[in-house]
Amino acid sequence: MSTNRRWYWAVIWHNPYTLPPDGYSRLMLVVEGERGQCPDEIEQLYTALRARHGGGWSVTTWCEATQSRRWTDEQRYARRRLNLRRRLERRYPMFAEQLYAEALTERPEYYGIANKR
Predict the structure, then answer these.
(1) Which of 2, 27, 35, 46 has the fewest CB atoms within 10 Å of its CB?
(2) Residues 81 and 57 in one domain
(3) What total number of domains does the chain contain?
(4) Alpha helices in the chain (DSSP H)
(5) Which of the pair, 103 or 115, is modelled with greater confidence?
(6) Would you call 29 helix, strand, or coil by DSSP?
(7) Domain range spanning residue 88?
(8) pLDDT in tens, 45-77
(9) Is residue 2 part of a domain?
């Protein structure tokens, strides 16, 4: 998989039962950074808020959700046929070719045979 994921760091008011001190919002700062390395701006702001107002503030991080790669129909059909062939050769090595041909004729749409004709 790709390692190009975006990580975000934020200083937030983490106590859900109280409001942040006057003049402050629940979300103070969001910065894009690297995994495992807190950006300096976040660390400085967090330290200043803790020193000035005490507990309740928190540093949080999350990763941007990435889209999974989608297979084309041809790739999906080819993988299905390959998996079928491997499964039959493993279970029924003597009859694999015959069973493979039968499976393709029984479900041509599933294995992409109907689309090729």
Answers:
(1) 2
(2) no
(3) 2
(4) 40-53, 73-91, 96-106, 108-111, 113-116
(5) 103
(6) strand
(7) 73-116
(8) 999 998 888 888 999 999 987 777 889 999 999
(9) no
